[in-house]
Amino acid sequence: MRKITEVIKVLFSTAGRKYPVFFVLKTVRMLINIAMPFIALFISPRIVDEIVGARDVGRLITLAALLIGGEAVCQLANDLCTNYINRYSNRLERYFSVLIGRHVMELDFQLTEDKEALEQIEKARTGMEWYSGGVDGISDQFFGFLGNLFKAAGFVTVLALHAPVLLAVMVVYTGLNALFVYKCNKIGIEAFAKLSKVNRLFGYFGWNIVDPRYGKDIRLYEARDMMLDSWKENTDRSNTHWKWQGDTCLPFNLSSDFLSLARSVFAYFYVALLAIRKIIGVGTFTQLIAAEGGLDGAIGGMVHNVTELIKRCSYAHEYVVFMDYPEALAKGTKPIEKKPHEIEFRHVSFAYPKTDRKVLDDVSIRIAPGEHLSIVGLNGAGKTTFIKLLCRLYDPTEGEILVDGTDIREYDYARYMEQFAPVFQDFKLFAFSLKENIAFSDEDADVTALADRVGLHDFVAKLEKGTDTSIFKFFDEEGVEPSGGEQQKIAIARALGKDAPVVILDEPTAALDPIAEYEIYKQFNTLVGGKSAFYISHRLSSCQFCDRIAVFSDGHIAEYGTHAELEKIDGGIYARMFEAQAKYYKE
Ligand code: ADP
User: Fold this and answer.
1) Which of 489, 495, 491, 367 is nearest to 420 (CA)?
2) Would you give the DSSP letter of residue 129?
3) CA of residue 328 to ligand 1 center, whole Å
């Protein structure tokens, strides 16, 4: 019950603020639906009585006209309402998927790497779509319930006046039937919980198989069979859940059908007996049979509405849970200015959530405003993690990070994020125009100049639509597929274009050809200017462009100093790495 009220409150208020007309239309349609059966219920018996009694043709025509005309008008109004409701229903579906998408983008980053949070996103998405039918599906059941309640009250009154015994039988029948339907729906909800994980895997395989970016690896590593096998395995698992649901529900469905048959037989015999004994007239006989059928329909409808509401709301409740998902990071309120900052890691240790291994262990370092720091070390040494902590994508497990002497957890989160312009190893370009990929919605950015600065001049010059050309061909036949190196340059241009005092380049030249790499290095200080810069690279020659070098090893800063200082350390990690690379080039 708590879930139903919560879902209805959240969904209806969100939808009502956006499209209030939707609820007006649903209310009008409900009132029409309540009126419809009562037109026949009260007019038909009078027609029957007229036929077997006075047979006044004029009165018969009037009654028939009222019956047919009334029902036709109601039907027309009902269809018109449905037509408009359907338009809003599509809009609402899209509106809620945008709300979910927006919330996913606003989630604390670490939740996007968290299995539970990912499952919650999937449950919210599927829960709000076909499982619950969204706001339209849930409000259908809600208004359906109200409508059926009013109809049932009308039919009960008619039966109570003429056939109270039949009413008592209906009450017992309804109770038993509700039990069967309830059991079936409970099974349905259990099946949904089991299916959620299968669906997430489905999504993964489904997308990867058709995603052209995986095309090369799939072909050259013969990953096709592995992908198809995994897909088949998940299809089988999904089918097993559906079959289990169907098989478990079958006995309850059959019992319900049998009970309904028994009720109908009793009703006809009982009401016919009343008519034969002349306790009621022929008109009332037809009215009672109609009222009995109507009450069965209305109560069945109510039971269906309630159980559907329970089921649908328990699916849609995943949306409510997701929209209220607890934040992973505490957020401060302190303002922070955009200016070169002094950055200090003080005894920082870190293990990824739900793991024990310290990826960073007691790291302390101070970086002066505007300083350029090169971070080197073997794969897995903790370099990227160090950057993730600085950008507050995660918080340290122990110790603190200070920016201008203040613990970064105290700063306003959004303002703090504005301080950084990173290019991560796994940066992503969007299927938008080149201009949008570099400057997003900043209309004033000089995209051409930024592209020139990172050596994209010739690339842009070749494009017919210049910086308005779409990246990738997802939505645009004339889009370009930039090479790995070109993509990296676009990402660097994007970082340089962001008005942020700290630039972070994580392996920024890995995909660049030696000449492009040399160009970026040569211009590095001009490119980054007076901003602070963190530069993760395996090519140690790049370190010479930085003020200091921190050598990470196994989660520690093993060596720290200028290139000249580190080069001299006999048997030092940096000296050995530098020597190895230099030798390789010389040879
Ligand atoms: P580097 O950048 O020096 O190559 P990383 O900082 O990326 O190293 O990774 C350091 C260690 O942390 C690695 O052993 C890696 O497997 C682990 N790691 C990285 N990201 C995660 C994550 N999201 N969850 C758990 N472990 C992770």
Assistant:
1) 495
2) I
3) 19
3-state DSSP helix/strand/coil % of the chain, to nearest 5: 65, 10, 20
pLDDT by residue for the chain (587 residues), tens only, comes to: 888 999 999 999 999 999 999 999 999 999 999 999 999 999 999 998 888 888 888 999 999 999 999 999 999 999 999 999 999 988 999 999 999 999 998 888 888 888 888 889 988 988 887 778 899 999 999 999 999 999 999 999 999 998 999 999 988 988 888 888 888 878 887 887 777 777 767 767 766 667 776 777 777 777 778 778 887 888 888 888 889 999 999 999 999 889 989 988 999 999 999 999 988 888 999 999 999 889 988 988 888 898 889 889 988 999 999 998 888 888 889 999 999 999 999 999 999 988 999 999 999 999 999 999 999 998 899 999 999 999 999 999 999 999 999 999 999 998 999 999 988 888 888 889 999 989 887 777 888 988 988 888 889 999 888 889 998 887 788 888 888 888 888 988 888 888 889 999 887 666 667 777 777 766 677 778 788 999 888 777 777 778 899 999 999 999 999 988 998 898 899 998 888 877 766 55
> What is the Cα Rg of the chain in Å?
35
Q: Which domains does the chain have, with CATH numbers?
A: 2-323 (1.20.1560.10), 343-427+500-586 (3.40.50.300), 430-481 (no CATH)
- Best CA proximity match to 492, nearest among 548, 462, 537: 537
Q: Is the CB of 381 under 6 A from ligand 1?
A: yes
Q: Which of 115, 359, 506 to mutate to test the pocket of ligand 1 (most atoms within 8 A of CB)?
A: 359
Using CA atoms, how far apart are residues 297 and 285, in angstroms rounded to an integer?
A: 18
> How far does the centroid of ligand 1 lie from the alpha carbon of residue 385, in Å?
6
What's the pTM value of the predicted model, to 2 decimals?
0.72
